[in-house]
Design a protein that fits this description.
- The structure is a single chain.
- The chain has about 280 residues and is mainly alpha-helical.
- The protein is built from 13 helices and no strands.
- The longest helix has about 35 residues.
C-alpha cells in the first residue's frame, strides 16, 4: 500500500508540474519577448535578450494610450466588484438562512442563469442598453457584467453561509439580536474570506472581459484594456516586441493583485470545506 501511495503521489505531482509548465511558458515567452528587439524575436525566439529594452514599455504605453484603457478597466472593475459582492452576499445569506415563499424557485432561477452563455444574450442586451440610453457608458457595462456574474457569485456565497455554524446565529437570536443584526454582526465577518476570494475572481473576470465591452462600447475614450490591446495590435503591426510589451502592461495589474491577495484567495475558496 505504501509503494502504491508513493506512485500515486509521483503521478499527481508530475501531472501538476506539467500543467504548471504548459501554463507558465507562454507567459514567460511574452515577458521575455517584451524586452527584446523585433529582430531578436525572429532570429532567437526562445533565447534571452542581449539587452533589456525597457523602452519598449514606454513606447507601447504612449502609442497604445494604455493609461486611458487601464483607467476605464479599473473604474468598471471596481464598481462591478462592489455591486457583485453586495448583492451576492445579501442574496446568498437569504437563500441559505432565511425561510420564505418561492425560495427554491428563486434558487433554481439563479442556477438556470449559469447555463446561459453570454454570447446567446449579447444581441438583446445591446438593444436593451440602447433603449435605455446606456450604450457606450460605464453604467451600462457595469450593469451587464454584474447581472451575468450574479448567478455564480450568489451560489458561491450561499454555499459558504450554509457551511457556516448555525449555532452562532441561534445564540445571537436568543440574546435578542434581530435577523439583520445576526447577518451584520455574526455571519458577515465570517464571510470576509469568501468575499475576498470572490472579489479577486470577479475583478479578474471584469478585467479580461472582451465580448461585452466590444459590443457596448464604441468610442476610443471608453475602451477597456482588452479592446485597447486589440486596436493597439493594428498600430504596432509586425513589431511583436511592442505587442508583447502591451500584453504585459495589460496583465501586470491583475498579476500584482493576485500575488498580493493570493493567501486570501486560497483561504476564501477553502474556508467552506474546512468548516463543513
Amino acid at each position: 500500500m505504501g509503494i502504491r501511495l508513493k506512485v500515486e503521489r509521483v503521478i499527481i505531482l508530475s501531472v501538476l508540474i506539467l500543467v504548471a509548465f504548459i501554463s507558465t511558458v507562454p507567459f514567460l515567452w511574452v515577458a521575455v519577448s517584451s524586452l527584446k528587439t523585433n529582430m531578436e524575436i525572429f532570429l532567437q525566439p526562445l533565447g534571452l535578450p542581449s539587452e533589456l529594452l525597457w523602452r519598449n514599455f514606454t513606447k507601447a504605453w504612449i502609442v497604445g494610450r494604455f493609461g486611458i484603457y487601464l483607467m476605464n478597466s479599473a473604474i468598471v472593475g471596481v464598481f462591478n466588484v462592489a455591486a457583485v459582492i453586495s448583492l451576492s452576499t445579501l442574496a446568498g445569506y437569504g437563500l441559505a438562512r432565511l425561510t420564505f415563499r418561492l425560495k427554491n424557485t428563486i434558487f433554481a432561477a439563479f442556477t438556470l442563469g449559469l447555463t446561459v452563455p453570454t454570447q446567446a444574450i449579447i444581441i438583446p442586451v445591446y438593444y436593451n442598453l440602447r433603449a435605455l440610453g446606456l450604450v457606450n457608458t460605464y453604467l451600462g457595462l457595469i450593469l451587464v457584467e454584474t447581472a451575468i456574474a450574479l448567478p455564480y457569485s450568489i451560489l458561491l456565497m450561499r454555499a459558504f453561509f450554509i457551511s457556516a455554524p448555525a449555532e452562532l446565529g441561534e445564540a445571537a437570536r436568543i440574546d435578542g439580536c434581530s435577523e439583520c443584526g445576526v447577518f451584520w454582526h455574526i455571519f458577515l465577518p465570517l464571510a470576509i474570506p469568501a468575499m475576498l476570494a470572490l472579489t479577486i475572481l470577479q475583478f479578474m473576470s471584469s478585467w479580461k472581459s472582451f465580448i461585452l465591452p466590444l459590443v457596448t462600447l464604441y468610442s476610443d475614450e471608453m475602451r477597456t484594456i482588452p479592446l485597447g490591446l486589440m486596436f493597439y495590435s493594428s498600430k504596432a503591426g509586425t513589431n511583436f516586441n511592442l505587442l508583447a510589451a502591451g500584453a504585459m502592461i495589460a496583465a501586470i495589474p491583475v498579476i500584482l493583485i493576485y500575488v498580493i491577495c493570493n493567501r486570501y484567495f486560497v483561504e476564501g475558496l477553502t474556508v467552506g470545506s474546512i468548516k463543513g
